[in-house]
Amino acid sequence: MQVQLHINGKATQLDLPPNTLLVQALREKLQLTGTHVGCDTSQCGACTVLMNGRAVKSCTLLLVQAEGAQVTTIEGLAKPDGTMHPMQAAFKECHGLQCGYCTPGMVLSAVDLVTHYPKATEAEIRELLDGNLCRCTGYQNIVKAVQHGAVAMAA
Question: Is the model's pTM score more than 0.85?
Answer without folding.
Answer: yes
